[in-house]
Amino acid sequence: MSTGPEIARPATPSMNDESSTPRRKRGVPEGLWLRCPKCSATIFRKQVEKNLRLCPECSHHFYVPARVRIQQLFDDDSFEEWYTELRSVDPLNFHDQKPYKTRLIAEQKKTGLDEACVVGKGYMRGRPVVFGLTDSAFIMGSMGSVVGEKLTRATEEATRQKLPLIIVSGSGGGARMHEGILSLMQMGKVSAALGRFHDAGGLYISVLTDPTMGGVAASFASLGDVIIAEPEALIGFAGPRVVKATVSSELPEGFQTSEFLLKHGFIDTIVPRTELRSEIVRIVDYCT
Amino acid sequence: MSAPLPLPFERPILELEKQLSDLEKQPDPTAVTRESIRRIRTELNKLKREVYEKLNPWEIVQVARHDARPKAMDYIELVFDEFVELHGDKAYGDDRAILTGFAKLGDRKVMLVAQQKGRNLRERLEHNYGMAHPEGYRKALSKIQMAAKFNLPVVCLIDTAGAYPGVGAEERGQAYQIALNLREMARIDTPIVCVVIGEGGSGGALGIGIGDHVAVLQFAYYSVISPEGCAGILWKHAKHADKAAHALRFTSKDLLELGVVDEIISEPIGGAHRNHRQMATNLHASLTSALKDLSEIPKDQLLDRRYEKFRKIGVFEETIAVGQA
Ligand SMILES: [Zn+2]
């Protein structure tokens, strides 16, 4: 790759951990103790971190930062990150309450990531795979030009190297507003690349995590040969608040959860995080 | 022409139009009256040109959404010589927000896929304001696939505020169906021309928007999110939609500059809603020429060309020269 191999390092609490990013409900907020949003238990933060970011009481799936997810899924030190020199610019000169450029810098500081997307190649129990991930902490995991480009290149590389492709999606933001129409077009770009990968017989496993919405759900996240979701993730096209405002009535119980999608036939299986790596490996072995 | 709703920036035009029609109604006009009519006509044309040259992005959104703006059904009547509607998505139901069927453009036979907002309240309700459910996107895709089977080029007319954000749409896989359309439209082996005729609302527009030639009408817009939606999130209130409209850079000029569209189709002076016939003529000419050009591209190059067209969209920096693994 252009930038030479870079081995993903274990997250340091100050860089890649939620400790630097006090998140509202879904994350692991700052402090020694935290309250589980599902069972309301007060739990020791370190215990959650040691336990795949699961609540020890009820197995609530907390947010997982990119680097931690890579550690969870890949054989030790086997992940090589690609295209690390790609950086977002500000093609629209976009300025809402703060300039997009300022926002990017703030998000980089907050998450320790260059962008919302990490791609590369690694080994899962000895099996080589091309991997992509969107981190919902970086501008809501939204897709702009860099996210689209990284995922497209990774897909093209998986096609060339004839390797399975695994993408773990986390995006509340869908297509990134700050890059306007260019973000919308990334949906087409990545999907077209996945079409070629599909034609070449490649295996694509899409893993949906909380939340996977909008333009991410309506492009690469929904195009897996096999689609896996973590339990109780929010997954859908339109945000629940938009839907609620449109239909002006209460939403059905469990609307837009992983379980809802499974019931309606739009995902293949729900896999708890404890089993995620072995399930991916099992599917890879069936298809390759 | 049906009476357009008064847009604030159109008021001076409407006043002058009123003056003109009053004068024109006079029986046995004197030479002075005839002279006034001539003068006002000239002035009116000049005024329309001036007002429409200076429209800001938020005003353009209002023109694009104008009730009297020609809708897909107008173009079906004025641009195409025949329309043989095909209703079936063969899975769930007939989504009236997207019309599909065989159509004739001069002597060229095409498959037409058109988002239909409706021209009056009855039609708008019937067509769900052009906001499609998954079955609409599924119907569109299946007809485009059939077009390839029978060597027919495809024309997609895009005009939607967005894919419908409802409970049923989510239950029936709105995200999945749009994603599938993106992937499949990128690899369907027949020429596809897409034209944004009014609103190009996000994923709902893109779901029938992958093609070899993408055009936009002069006062249409094509955006990742509605200006109201964007303002609600980034400015914390939809009332800042005008600010969002400026920031999003979604006017036809912007789209051409950003490399997202290939062509801007001119509108009649004062906007398409003032002259449906002229607009239809312009659209007819553009479609005819695009389809002719695409028919000359060798079959084995068409899909590579379409892939590259979308592949190169995006703006970013890469600090080290591009290399490959
Ligand atoms: Zn719990």
TrEMBL record, chain A:
Note on how the cofactor is bound: Binds 1 zinc ion per subunit.
Its biological purpose: Component of the acetyl coenzyme A carboxylase (ACC) complex. Biotin carboxylase (BC) catalyzes the carboxylation of biotin on its carrier protein (BCCP) and then the CO(2) group is transferred by the transcarboxylase to acetyl-CoA to form malonyl-CoA.
Disordered: annotated span: 1-27
GO MF: acetyl-CoA carboxylase activity; ATP binding; carboxyl- or carbamoyltransferase activity; zinc ion binding
Residue ranges annotated for the CoA carboxyltransferase N-terminal domain, each copy included: 32-288
Organism placement in taxonomy: Bacteria, Pseudomonadati, Planctomycetota, Planctomycetia, Planctomycetales
Name of the protein in its database record: Acetyl-coenzyme A carboxylase carboxyl transferase subunit beta
Source species of the chain: Thalassoglobus neptunius
Subcellular location: Cytoplasm
Alphabetized UniProt keyword annotations: ATP-binding, Cytoplasm, Fatty acid biosynthesis, Fatty acid metabolism, Ligase, Lipid biosynthesis, Lipid metabolism, Metal-binding, Nucleotide-binding, Transferase, Zinc, Zinc-finger
Cofactors demanded by this protein: Zn(2+)
Automatic annotation (TrEMBL), chain B:
GO cellular component, one term: acetyl-CoA carboxylase complex
Subcellular location: Cytoplasm
Gene3D superfamilies for this protein: 2-enoyl-CoA Hydratase, Chain A, domain 1
GO biological process, one term: malonyl-CoA biosynthetic process
Pfam families for the chain: ACCA
Coiled-coil stretches: none
Keywords for the protein's UniProt record, in alphabetical order: ATP-binding, Cytoplasm, Fatty acid biosynthesis, Fatty acid metabolism, Ligase, Lipid biosynthesis, Lipid metabolism, Nucleotide-binding, Transferase
GO MF, one example: ATP binding
Protein's UniProt keywords contain Acyltransferase: no
Pathway the protein takes part in: Lipid metabolism; malonyl-CoA biosynthesis; malonyl-CoA from acetyl-CoA: step 1/1
Signal peptide location: none
Reaction(s) the record says it catalyses: N(6)-carboxybiotinyl-L-lysyl-[protein] + acetyl-CoA = N(6)-biotinyl-L-lysyl-[protein] + malonyl-CoA
Domain CoA carboxyltransferase C-terminal: 39-293
Domain of life: Bacteria
Entry's EC annotation: 2.1.3.15
Main location: cytoplasm
Protein task: Component of the acetyl coenzyme A carboxylase (ACC) complex. First, biotin carboxylase catalyzes the carboxylation of biotin on its carrier protein (BCCP) and then the CO(2) group is transferred by the carboxyltransferase to acetyl-CoA to form malonyl-CoA.
Family the entry assigns: Belongs to the AccA family.
Assembly with partners or alone: Acetyl-CoA carboxylase is a heterohexamer composed of biotin carboxyl carrier protein (AccB), biotin carboxylase (AccC) and two subunits each of ACCase subunit alpha (AccA) and ACCase subunit beta (AccD).
Full protein name: Acetyl-coenzyme A carboxylase carboxyl transferase subunit alpha
Species, as recorded: Thalassoglobus neptunius
